[in-house]
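Researcher: Please predict.
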Amino acid sequence: MRKAFVGMLLALCSVSAVAQEKYFLPAGKEAVSPDAEGFIRRWTILEPISKTNRSNTVFVDSYLRDVFAHEYFKNQMTILPKDGQKVKVTFDKQVEQPRPAGQPTDFRRMSMEPPKFEKATEELKWHKLDSKTYNLKLLRFGEHEIKRVYGVIYWVVTVINCEEEMKDVRLSVGSNSASQWWVNGQDVLLLSGDRRMVADDCMSHRITLKKGENIIRGAIINGPGMSDFCVKIVDENGKAVKGGYTIK
């Protein structure tokens, strides 16, 4: 019986690993260019932080700005994570409410009760990956790395190196579900609502990328459902910028 149970666990882990390998590769040491359509595929992703949401309908602007402004780990908005680097994360863990023994479960009452939380901490790891698809399949990443796929926040970071200054460009983003994006520490874009991932769904105001290194940072939140995102840089006319920079 024990051997069968262990075998089942190993099989599940193997399936999950294969699922991740279908969508990601460990990032190489050499800098890479955006893909043929201008999408940035190299990102350093933190294992998902637990953030319980029963529905994605709560993702209005005020809620998102409050959630993303919360400090989950030290140097959250300045860290340049290395592959394998670990951070101590503080989050609100939902508390399971005990039910009186011998009484039938009242699912209607349970659905109406507000969830209760307690502070918890855990150590999470950053992973530097190259996506095999233009959109990064965060759900596939999450289910492999920490077996957590719903009710999550993902933090992602990438560094691009511009050959020359780029003026009047925009950050073009699609995400499932809501997300917020920063370039060189400046808030440039918020995607709110219960949305599906669509390429070029939203674009930032015009920004200037400096010559040399520029840091793009994002936070993606989801309750139930898929989690993924895609990012590219476009010119003032909305055309993808495919050259003039590399991804570190």
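Model: Residues 2-23 form the longest helix (22 residues).
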